[in-house]
Amino acid sequence: MAAGSANVAPATNPPNFPELMGHPRPLWMLFMTEFWERFSFYGMRWALTLYIVAQFYSGSGTGEAPANRIYGAYLALVYASGLLGGYAADRLIGYQRSILLGAVIMGSGLFVMMIPSMDVFELGLSLVIVGNGLFKPNISTMVGQLYAQNDMRRDAGFTIFYMGINAGSFVSPLLTGWLASVITDTPLQQNYKVVFACAGVGMILSFLWFWFGRRQLHGIGRPPADVSGTRNLGIVLAGAAIVVPIVYVLLAKLGADVLAWVLGIMFIALAVMLLIEGIREGAVPRDKVIAMLIIFVFNILFWMFYEQAGSSFNFLAEKIVDRMFGGWEFPVAWFQSVNPIGVITLAPLVAIAWVALAKRNQEPSIPRKFGLGLIGNGLAFLLLMLALTHMVDAQNKIPFWTLFMVYIIQALGELCLSPIGLSMVTKLAPSRLVGFAMGGWFLSIATGNNLSGIFASSVSGETGMTTASALSGYTFGFWALVGSGVLLFLIAPLINKLMHGVR
Question: Residue 485 and residue 470: Cα distance in Å, rounded?
Fold first, then answer.
């Protein structure tokens, strides 16, 4: 679960906020605003592919591949939209209005998605994408603005905020998955509509929490005094009205394959611009840019396989995992709560391990931490390979615990890689293009997410997932992840040399 970095937008002279539990009181308001937004986002994310198959393909396995591609493209566009949302907040309407507007657009999209038409459903997804772009990057930025640059509480504040993200993503699949499983007198596709409605209510709560709590911010996040708020708000609304159809075309008409080319061209263009700026600044900045771009490529691979959680792993859980406990069936959605459990439980242990290794001068370098993340992700696929090869029972099912542990192992891999990504960018990017390089980091995640949908569609094949297709696909995932992780370990000395002492 990606979170805001502790290196985002510190304030030079923030107001003297009253404190609650040792931190500025507005932190807790932002914590709950983000909790409800993440509740909304993750509460319906698990249902997307299952709903598409149930509603628009009458439950046929032939719908799995297109559903996976829509899901991957959706996640990719969610990350890419943050670039425009950050610009709108920075230059035009401020962070507060951007968050409120984003919440309204996201909420409207979630309710639109309930209408049983594929075109309208995809329009609703497009609204969620644009709204998320206005909301997500800017609330993380505001957390940074509560603290001065040298405030020792700043990292702890982001850790608390990060727990809000994981708390929301833990609770929401439990509730929405339960709703989808207990409303038994209606067809399954109608149950999923209840999930979208519940997520929409979550966005209403997020909006209200921020609307009534923003007075605590004492002006932080408002547009500058010399900016015409009303005129710029109109510009952003007009821009959103233009961007939503563009996102819809990318998502619904062009699809994941064309989007992969679009994202690839954007990534190459960004890399060239960063290299040109690095060369202009000198040999050391040039080398740092090269190191950063190499790690971006490996980051794409990590997220390509990690984001099976909301796509192929859902179909695996639905079709091939034994979820029965006596007469009760474990809801598919509840697997989505395992990852945040893993993150919350394992994050302190990973932090303690890095500190202990640092004291012995044995802490892995940034490239090797990324390598550990890739290999950790690969081990999750190894467990699936073993289960699909040696643990399939007479009903063609694999044990429940295997998929449960896949999510835990992936969480450990994520903690080796994700928390250091944004920090790495701030250390390696050219001094004049740090924000642009940050966009490159999110663009690499977006590219990986889009590829995850394409990969998941190949796992399902043309007729739907089987044990054979799952074994074939996840075997490829294992070798791709472990091979790239080992390669990164081998070239780590070269990358470290290019980083010129950055750790």
Answer: 22
For residue 382, CA distances in Å to 150, 319, 322 come to 44, 19, 19
Q: State both tokens at 427.
A: 């250390």
| pLDDT tens sequence across 37-55 | 989 998 898 889 999 998 9
Whether 11 is in a domain gets the answer: no
- Residue 187: alpha-carbon gap to chain centroid: 30
Distance of CA 321 to the CA centre of its chain: 25
Burial of 449 (0-12, 13-18, 19+ CB in 10 A): buried
Note whether 42 and 167 are within 8 A (CB): no
Name the domain count of the chain.
Answer: 1
Average pLDDT of the residues in 257-274: 90
Question: Which of 420, 478, 114 shows the shortest CA–CA distance to 292?
Answer: 420
String of DSSP letters for 413-430: HHHHHHHHHHHHHHHHS-
Place of tokens 């563009």: 246
Across 51-60, 345-354, 448-457, least confident range: 345-354
Q: Could you tell me the residue range of the domain that residue 109 belongs to?
A: 19-499
Residue 473 lies in a domain: yes
* pLDDT 10s digits, 365-407: 888 989 999 999 999 999 999 999 999 998 999 999 999 999 9
The CATH number covering residue 347 comes to 1.20.1250.20
